[in-house]
Amino acid sequence: MAQEVIKIKGGRLLNGKVDISGAKNSSVAIIPASLMSTGPVTLEGLPKISDVETLVSLLEDLNITTSLDGTTLSVDPTDIKNMVLPNHKVESLRASYYMMGAMLGRFKKCVIGLPGGCPLGPRPIDQHLKGFKALGAKVDETDGHTMKLEADKLIGANIYLDIVSVGATINIMLAASLAEGQTMIENAAKEPEVVDVANFLNSMGAKVSGAGTSSIKITGVERLHGSRHAIIPDRIEAGTYMCIAAASGERVVINNIIPKHVEPLTVKLKELGVGIEVGDDYMIVKSRNQYNSVDIKTLVYPGFATDLQQPITPLLFLADGPSFVTDTIYPERFKHVKELQNMNASIDSDRGTATIKPSTLKGADVYASDLRAGACLIV
């Protein structure tokens, strides 16, 4: 497969403005959730990414009528049919697991390829399956390629997640919305994307309360109706642009942003000494020649997001002393360190912590192992 190459000529200060896209992690859950409606749904503010196109294609495989026009998606599930979802599409997208909760809620039955090439044995979707089983579903994955979920009926239950999981929290919310009785999810994820999905479900007639806290209550309803919903702005994209502006921006205006959602990053950037003006739905970020050294530790929301520890790292080379970044969510997420070393960076990582010292970076050919590492190297 041919690799995409980005060539960057550094040394220029950035000026101007940027509009933030809709949240990816909301979109990839809300699109599957739309199939639970008995009437037309309109989703606004979707990001222009391949994940959205893949999920729309999966809806069409269920005989759902769709129309994607830029950032707006129209979904009409009137003639929906419960079909086995193709394995090759499901494998290409980890978030396709949200089709499980949506289809289980709608049909009480679903046959789907293992999401994202998910191996058998212990894996990230164990908490999802735990929730489905608690609601009364039987799980069969004996053939090793597909997963069959089936229930005579779904009945509300008290579910305690062993780990805080955004995916499991949302997936259980989807299935429980059309279950009989009340479901309580304890140790639930508090992320804004969870709240966004809950708001969408409620706009269709669901009864979800407590989203954004560790305890979410879902009272099942018989059916969901159509609605119109606007996706929240992507806090990770916003945070990435904030880091870019702080590192090399003279004055950058970031529009379509919810300041509360990026507050952990904003606080840390101000601690560094970055100039930030916060408005109702925008931020203005101004860079400086030198910053204060800081310590950063990633945590689940509302802590510092793991997806932003890589983009903020280049900024720390401008500090007046050593900084430390510890990732408690993904301790192995430091593949960018070797690439930064190729750019003359003084950085090392050990046991989930990177030590970053003041450095003058030089241009080099580097490889982005993942999306956030790519953002780091671009900064």
Task: Provide structural commentary.
The longest helix has 14 residues, at 235-248. The strands form 5 sheets. The chain has a 4-stranded mixed beta sheet, with helices on one face. Strands 3-4-2-12 form a 4-stranded mixed beta sheet, covered by helices on one side. By secondary structure, the chain is an alpha+beta fold. It has 2 domains: 14-20 and 233-378, Alpha-beta prism (UDP-n-acetylglucosamine1-carboxyvinyl-transferase, Chain), CATH 3.65.10; 24-230, Enolpyruvate transferase domain (UDP-n-acetylglucosamine1-carboxyvinyl-transferase, Chain). It has helices spanning 24-33, 50-61, 87-91, 98-107, 126-134, 166-177, 192-203, 235-248, 263-272, 309-316, 336-341, 371-378, and strands at residues 14-19, 41-44, 65-69, 72-76, 109-113, 138-140, 146-150, 158-160, 182-186, 207-209, 215-219, 227-230, 249-255, 275-278, 282-286, 295-298, 323-327, 346-350, 353-357. Mean pLDDT is 93; it is low at 117-122. InterPro entries: Enolpyruvate_Tfrase_dom (IPR001986), Enolpyruvate_Tfrase_sf (IPR036968), MurA_subfamily (IPR050068), RNA3'P_cycl/enolpyr_Trfase_a/b (IPR013792), UDP_GlcNAc_COvinyl_MurA (IPR005750). It is found in: Cytoplasm. Its main location: cytoplasm.
